[in-house]
């Protein structure tokens, strides 16, 4: 499953998540455009799989905020 994100600044997602591992609602001009893209991914396994390519070479560093 590919996360679809909304709310934080794009830079915050870019700092916390691997590149091309999520879909940001703000990258689309309209909800209609987002839906069209999601339907495209549903029909195109190769395009969908690109969202998981980072697993071959990427790392996730978990950061916890300490009060």
UniProtKB/TrEMBL annotation:
Keyword Transmembrane found: yes
EC number: 2.4.1.-
Record localization: Golgi apparatus, Golgi stack membrane
Keywords: Glycosyltransferase, Golgi apparatus, Membrane, Transferase, Transmembrane
Name of the protein described by the UniProt record: Fucosyltransferase
Source organism (scientific name): Mesocestoides corti (Flatworm)
Protein's pathway: Protein modification; protein glycosylation
PANTHER family: ALPHA- 1,3 -FUCOSYLTRANSFERASE, ALPHA-(1,3)-FUCOSYLTRANSFERASE FUT-1
Cross-referenced Pfam families: Glyco_transf_10
Record lineage: Eukaryota, Metazoa, Spiralia, Lophotrochozoa, Platyhelminthes
Signal peptide: none
Similarity-based family: Belongs to the glycosyltransferase 10 family.
Fucosyltransferase C-terminal domain residues: 1-61
